[in-house]
Amino acid sequence: QVNVLRPLCDSPEAEEAALLARDYLNAQHTHGYKYELNRIEDIKIFPGLNGTDTYVLEVDLLETDCHVLDPTPVANCTVRPKMMTAVEGDCDVVLKKVGGVLTVTAFKCKTEESTEDCVGCFNLLPLNDTAALDFVHTSLATFNNNTGNVTYAILEVGRISSQVVSGGHQYLAEYVVTEANCTDDVCMPTSDPLAERGICTAKGFTRSHVLQCKMFHIPMVPVVDANSTVAAVPVSPPAVHIHTGSMSHKHGLKHHKLTPLHNPDLSGHLSESSESAEIVPVASAVAVD
Amino acid sequence: PAAPIITLGHVTISETGPALSRSVCPGRIRFFD
C-alpha cells in the first residue's frame, strides 16, 4: 500500500513547491528566456521516513520577455502573448522536503512553441535563418554607430521572427550584446567579467528599423577549474546545463529550450513520456573562488 | 484493501472511490491555456 497525499493544486503548499521549481529551472540556463508559472497541473506528496517527503509536481510554464541574463525578477517579467508565438514548457519536477526545507532533486521538461495559425502575426524563424541574421547584424551596426568609442558584439541571438507586410518581410529580433575587443575590422565578445552587456530588440527592415537596447552589468565571478583555467561566469552559476539532441541554434531551432532532463539520483518519480529518453550524467560541481 | 489510499486535505478516500481528486487539479490558469 502506497500512501499519497494530494494537496489542492492551488494550495499554498503546492504554490511554494511550484515557485521553487520555476526558479530552479530558470537558474539552469545561461541561454534563452526566463519562464513563468502558468498552471500547476498536478502534485503528489509521498511521505517518507524521518519526516522526509517527496513531492512530484507537474507544472506548465510560459516564456517571458526577460532573457536569463536580465537581472529583472521573473515575477516582474511579461509573459509573451500567444499571438507573439508563445513558447511553453511542461515539466515534471521531483522535490524533497527535509526539515521543512524544499529542494529540487530531479526534473524533466518538454518545450514547445504554439502552433496556432495566426494570419499576419509574427512567426518564429530558425535561429540560423540567413536573411534574419543579416537583419540582426545590420541593426547591430546601427547600434554601434551610436555608442561612441565602445563597440558591441553579439553574444547570443534569443529570438527572431518575421511578419509579412506590404513592404515585404518585417523582422523582429532579440539578441544579447556585450562589449567587444576589436582588431582591425574583426570584433569579438570580450571576456572581461566587468563588461557591459545589453539585450536589444530590433524591429523593421534591413534598410530601416528601430532598435532598443537595455544595458546592464551582470556581476561575474572568476571560476578556477582543475586546470587552473580562469573563466568568468555569472554569480550563482547554473548547477547543471545539459543539452541533449539538437538543441542549439546552430541546428536551426526556433527558440531556446528548457533543460530537458536532470535526474542525478535516477528518480523513478519522473514520468515515462519525454522527449529525452536517455539519462545524462550530471557534471560535478565547480569550485568557486 | 490493496487499493492505494489518497489523502485529500482532511479527507481520506480510496483511489477507486469517488473522483473527488479530479476536481482539485489542475489548478488555476494564470495567463492562458
Q: What keywords describe this structure?
A:
heterodimer; A: 289 residues; 2 helices; 10% helix; B: 33 residues; mainly beta; two-stranded antiparallel sheet; rod-shaped
Task: Explain the overall architecture.
The complex is a heterodimer of chains A (289) and B (33). Chain A is mostly beta strands. In chain A, 10% of the residues lie in helices and 43% in strands. Chain A has two helices and 14 strands; from the N terminus they run E-H-E-E-E-E-E-H-E-E-E-E-E-E-E-E. In chain A, the strands form three sheets. In chain A, strands 6, 7, 8, 9, 10 and 11 form a six-stranded antiparallel beta sheet that branches. In chain A, strands 2-3-4-5-14 form a five-stranded antiparallel beta sheet. In chain A, strand 7 and strand 8 form a beta hairpin. Chain A is elongated and about 65 Å long. Chain A starts with a strand and ends in a 27-residue tail after the last strand. The C terminus of chain A is likely disordered. Chain B is an all-beta fold and 33 residues long. Chain B contains no helices and two strands. A two-stranded antiparallel ribbon of chain B has the order 1-2. About 33% of the residues of chain B have low confidence. At the A-B interface, strand 1 and strand 2 of A face strand 1 of B.
